[in-house]
Specification:
Layout lengths: L9 E4 L5 E3 L7 E6 L6 H12 L1 H6 L2 E7 L3 H11 L4 E4 L4 H5 L3 E6 L2 E6 L2 E5 L5 E5 L9 H6 L1
Parallel strand pairs: 3-4, 4-5
Antiparallel strand pairs: 1-2, 3-8, 6-7, 8-9
């Protein structure tokens, strides 16, 4: 997925099993953020930054949707533990991470594995990707302010 591309209509299923569609957010800009794993330090810092900046993001016309390959039960615990006010998509079949090109080979502590690259897509009111904050650019602790700049 690149700047100028149309985002898919069907995004997936949230933490409650509800289908999330682009058209559910008509007239709003969407912060679609992909993160590696619930309840890990960087992902928690990022989610809490978006939680703390949520009202400012909404005032600016944004709706926040998080995506990871964790299941719905994991998302429910993550939301409850950190009082997250936004939807988390459980992309367990990896359809969305692959469609957006954020699933691939990663290396950590000398081992290689497949995982999600932390990436945020800003989608405009017409469903077009207008900005991408890539894995090397995302500031987990200040992510909400980074989006608003």
């Amino acid at each position: 997925m690149n700047i100028g591309d149309k985002a898919p209509e069907t995004l997936g299923f949230d933490e409650n099993g509800k289908e999330i569609r682009l058209s559910d957010y008509k007239g709003k800009k969407i912060v679609l953020y992909f993160y590696p794993k619930d309840n890990t330090s960087g992902c928690t810092a990022q989610a809490c930054s978006l939680r703390d900046g949520y009202e400012d993001l909404r005032k600016a016309g944004y709706e926040v949707i998080g995506v990871s390959v964790d299941g719905a039960a994991s998302h429910q615990k993550f939301i409850a533990k950190h009082s997250l006010p936004f939807t988390l998509i459980a992309d367990t079949d990896k359809k969305l991470v692959e469609e957006f090109g954020v699933w691939g080979e990663k290396k950590m502590y000398g081992r290689t594995y497949m995982g999600t690259f932390r990436t945020t897509f800003i989608i405009n009111e017409e469903g077009i990707v207008e900005r991408i904050i890539g894995p090397k650019e995302v500031k987990t602790k200040e992510h909400a302010q980074q989006i608003l700049k």
